[in-house]
Amino acid sequence: MPPRSSPTARQVRLGTELRKMREASGLPARAAGELLGGNQAQISHIESGRWGVSAERVRRLAAFYSATDAKLIDALCGMAEERAKGWWEEYRGVLPAGFLNIAELEHHARFLRAYQTLTVPGIFQTSDYARTIFAGRIPALPAKELNARIEHRMKRRVIFERTTPPLLEAIIHEAALHVLYGGRGAARDQLRFLLEVSEWPTVTVRVIPFTSEEFFGSAQTMLYAGGVVPQLDTVQLDSAYGSVFLDADAQLARYRSMYDALQRLTLGVHESRDVINRIAKEL
After folding, report:
1. Residues 122-132 pLDDT 10s
2. Which end of the chain is less congested by CB atoms within 10 angstroms, N or C?
3. Residue 239 — very low, low, confident or very high, per pLDDT cuts 50/70/90?
């Protein structure tokens, strides 16, 4: 079986967690490879996500590493057993891998926390709003990719159609509500839709007002996705070169603390809705 040329972020994450487990045990990759009847290269491919691994082998490796966290091991076995392809796979080869990985991350998340300073969170954007953002890219995107990006962004909301949707809390700075992406009409429609989603059972929208005197403007926008177990939480950040995914314990702790600090600056749920409604009426 040849190695995968482009493993997904989730496949890489499974390998990363197995590597963390092995390193904690102090065992070399060579010894783990021998356990599976292979060599160091085999373990290297597994730990990079380039080779799949069965649930049975995950348990064998965990026992070999003397790992005792049963919930984490069960969660990793569940990841290893995943075979069905998600709806986002139809965009492979059409959109950058980061788009697919965000959709996959949201699909598997138990809860989501989003923070945005200048735009409405992508999962809640209207098509006109998203089109303006994507169309502003330099150099301009080909029409086919532009339309595919918009379509993909709209489809991400399918997670809220499940029997048990994930809880999502979005913190948005008031500045993002005033930017007229696509003109007054598109911006007004976007704010009205944001009011609509804020009433969905599992969605909470909070606003940091301009009047906040403690806002730390250097805070980076982010998406925090809660895993089946806390060790599998993931932070997604936007960069000039695409999405960045973080999973180190120290990084997760840092962004949890950052989000908690930002949450303390927000208005209440009803006050946040009032601000959004007021700005929408002014457009």
Report:
1. 999 999 999 99
2. N
3. confident
